[in-house]
Structures are given as C-alpha cells and as structure tokens.
Specification:
mainly alpha; 0% strand
Length: 71
Amino acid sequence: MEGKQTAVEFLFRSLWQEPKDKMVWFSILKQAEAMEKDQIMDAHEQAYIDMNLSFRSADRAEEYYNETYGK
C-alpha cells in the first residue's frame, strides 16, 4: 500500500520545478517532514489519552504514521 502524500511533499514537489537551489529546498523539506510527523504523532497520542487509552499511545502513534504515510 502506498502512503498518502502530505501537503509538505506536494508543495515541495511542485516547487521543485522552479529555479531554486534544490539542496536548500531539500533540506527544508526534510525539516518540515520531521516536524509534520511529530505533529501527527502528537495528535494521535493525544486522541488516545483523551479516550483513556494512553497505555499504548506512543507505539500506536508511530504505527499509525507509518501505516498512513508509509514512512
């Protein structure tokens, strides 16, 4: 199963065609992807906590991210 494309990936791939320094853009993409992953996992963990299921929230957050986005 191929993962969903994030908005950050879409933006980067679209801008890749523009005349910019590709190494700078790539570095920014990697930083943004790491930030986005953390945000997604934090939101998933918070949902588990809110449902009183915090016993596996960190493990499930990583699993959810990998299953959804294929990283």
